[in-house]
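Sorry, explain these tokens?

***
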Amino acid sequence: VYSDSSMEGVQSLSGIYFSLPVALYRSFPTRLLSRAWGRLNGVELPNWLRKPVYSLYIWTFGVNMQEAAVEDLHQYRNLGEFFRRRLKPAVRPLCANSCLISPADGKILHFGQVKNSEVEQVKGVTYSLENFLGPQKRRSNDSTSSFRDLLLSSPDNDLFHVVVYLAPGDYHCFHSPADWKVELRRHFPGSLLSVNPGVARLVKELFCLNERVALTGQWQHGFFSLTAVGATNVGSIRVYFDQELQTNVPRYNKGSFHDHSYVTIDGQSLKADGEGGVVLQKGAAVGEFNLGSTIVLLFEAPKDFSFSLQPGQRIRVGEGLGSL
């Protein structure tokens, strides 16, 4: 249960410049194509066509159907059901020795500490933390604090990030990476450019341009956020506990965002109380994509937090990301 409070705003994406090829790519009607793909996904396939169509997809993208809760390809009525297939309960055990686990199956694009309010989307290519999360309320009257510092609740902590890329053949649901409370959903309508690592190396601030849904709140060490970033043919981002969320709508204002609070309102500030917020346990199912995309975690933790990852490694839901 959450409050029905919602707000809208507009942000200015500063400091973003594009080469001619990138500008031309951005002009492609990727949102329209993604909506058309979404409609195609919902078309019921005749029974005789299902196995050859899905088998081609399985072969092309290396899908492991032995992990699927339903292995019989004839049971998937359309492409959408196949893309959003569930897994057998035992195939993704949760790492008990890590306070933070992978929220998705995919590839680790980047991880580490957030420095100078800039985050790397892939090695050597950064995006602005403020552009990505949008404006935040200041904790004090200190106007000199960096955006990164605004998110930290303790000087003994630091801000960390992890980027997980979901390929088309991956399991498309995402899960809670920790025990935490979600206080706010911020939806950024935007472009739907490919988030393939090759494109991410070419388009600076790619994650700030694309449509995304940021869930922010608190965990045992302070600030915590999980952001689902849309991509071409992945205009649909679903959050299971938020039935009001609608993504890839036909029209939107450039640079706009829409806030929805899951907690009570105290004046003009969001304030969690004993009943406010959506409490998620580590490993709980949170939402899903169509096809594949990217999950970005940004979280506060003690300075001695250590990642147990390698850039480019494959990871699965439930595997440990790091420890204290």
Q: What stands out?
A: The longest helix spans residues 47-61. Residues 57 and 63 are 8 Å apart (CA to CA). The radius of gyration is 19 Å. Residues 1-5, 267-274 have pLDDT under 50 and may be disordered.
